[in-house]
## 1
Amino acid sequence: RKEVEQDPGPFNVPEGATVAFNCTYSNSASQSFFWYRQDCRKEPKLLMSVYSSGNEDGRFTAQLNRASQYISLLIRDSKLSDSATYLCVVLTGTGGFKTIFGAGTRLFVKA
Amino acid sequence: GAGVSQSPSNKVTEKGKDVELRCDPISGHTALYWYRQSLGQGLEFLIYFQGNSAPDKSGLPSDRFSAERTGGSVSTLTIQRTQQEDSAVYLCASSLSRGLVANYGYTFGSGTRLTVV
């Protein structure tokens, strides 16, 4: 079993739709969680951190479920510009120093 | 500099040749990381530098891979006797310190796309 698993997709949604991605992690001692966005042939960029209480940034909401060991990303009112690959990132190990990147979920938003 | 700079952006090399990839981190960032991303795959950790020392080189796939960092700044990743399976995008990232990654994440360079033919 991979340490961090994501549904590779692709998710094809129309503009204005709400879409959600999940990411599961295997190490219950994992400490910090992030979502990164990666556009085609570009570097990953930090989208948002994921806090235990859940957090929102505009149209994006991230949640953490420690009991079930997954994090989620919800995108409301999808825009064409949201089309990208979304990477789940988990920090674990002593001091949270081991970083595992998921393989990503591809999202296509269509007009 | 304003961001993490990597060069070259693209490199095509013949199997068996050596290549050097360069990373110039954000000024003042003490932690520097090399990752590799193959097509459709997640990022694979290669090596981490704190200052000029590499406390974690556990991800280097073979002894053909080496890296150094000088002056607490620029880092070079060297691949000797390249093989076709080395073809990938090599990404460099930096952070103020490793401990702050948990708060602020990584800043990545745009990568070097290596193709071994």
## 2
Amino acid sequence: KAGVTQTPRYLIKTRGQQVTLSCSPISGHRSVSWYQQTPGQGLQFLFEYFSETQRNKGNFPGRFSGRQFSNSRSEMNVSTLELGDSALYLCASSLAQGGTYEQYFGPGTRLTVT
Amino acid sequence: QKEVEQNSGPLSVPEGAIASLNCTYSDRGSQSFFWYRQYSGKSPELIMSIYSNGDKEDGRFTAQLNKASQYVSLLIRDSQPSDSATYLCAVSSGYALNFGKGTSLLVTP
């Protein structure tokens, strides 16, 4: 099975712009979660989607949003970028059923805000 | 606030030794526990999951869970230089994973 894919892999944006990141989960996985990883804060949960519904949201401002499509692919959007949004953004997919909750990560999108 | 604590290390062990990595968590309602390995510049890779008290073995890896003590550990037997990485403990009580900051492991030849 193909793993989780994320596009683009690298992105450079200017403060104030917005950005959209894309994630395709492992085939058959209906849950997609997004995380932000920075050297100072580590890995922090952004939000989780299952069957196009957001089931949980982390402690991030409203500038961070996401959605999931009927084919389980997901996008996250960050508006009005700030320098502090520079991070590795990771998507993870999970079967999320039958007692199986393991999350598998994609390669990530490295976002740099200048 | 749900916290997951790990020693940042680095933990240095000689090749062939047992590496012991520890993690404590604050949320007593946590139900799922995971260990991830992350090499520098790469994304986290799932190496172990554990859901009930006791030990779970997979190859050279053993995960141990003690819910009463809110403690999870990972043992790596016959450590190899290729095991040198940051090991992340993750705990879940719902749909989100809460991660520790990770323990850096260095296996010296």
